[in-house]
Sequence to fold (225 residues):
Amino acid sequence: MQPNWENDACLPVKGVHCDLQQYPRYTINATEASHVQAGVNFARTNNVRLIVRGTGHDFLGRSTAPDSLQIWTHNLRGLQWYDGFIPKGCSMAASPAIKVAAGHRMFEVYDAAAAHGMTTIGGQDPSVGLGGHLTGGGHAPISGVYGLAADNVLEIEVVTPSGEIKTTNPCTNSDLWFALRGVRATAIASLGSHGLTTADTANRVAAAPSASSSPPRSKHTPSPQ
Fold:
């Protein structure tokens, strides 16, 4: 959605005028959490407008802004399956879960869960990124049965506006964890109080309709970027 909020200022069409003033001035291609930390610390120290973009699906335009420093999380990668996951510092029963880095899109998460005969809560459009979907509440085609994505997250690792990496769950930094689930991480960061962006998220999974199936995809299956 970001071209809409950039007023289609520089479309990849031959002969069309290109104006870069609507775009972020600089972009950090974050491939590890330390890159996110460096961007946050630089923006805070130099009073620079900071935005975060994963896939750019934000209908409210929060994934782009002129005269800003953008942290691009698409290349934060990593998928890890757990037969029994227990959030840090908690004594709850272990449950199947998948830990996902911020850069993954939902079709990748669906496929990883389906390999274990499971599924997870995610957007109907499989090209949606997990971070923005989760921190916006996370409505899904199966939410009527399993709730929102925010109801099924077990643990979130974030970089805070102070540049710290914190693990959040019901037992560790629980106030931050509750705030991140559905309040929009970028909105919280603009208030200067809580988390900025998801680094890793552990999500509860549920049994899929069959061992080889996953939630239905849209007619357009995105190609890897």
In short: The mean pLDDT is 77. Strands lie at 26-29, 50-53, 69-72, 79-85, 95-101, 118-119, 153-159, 165-168, 197-204, 206-207. The longest strand covers residues 197-204. Helices lie at 2-5, 33-46, 106-114, 130-135, 143-146, 149-152, 174-180, 185-190.
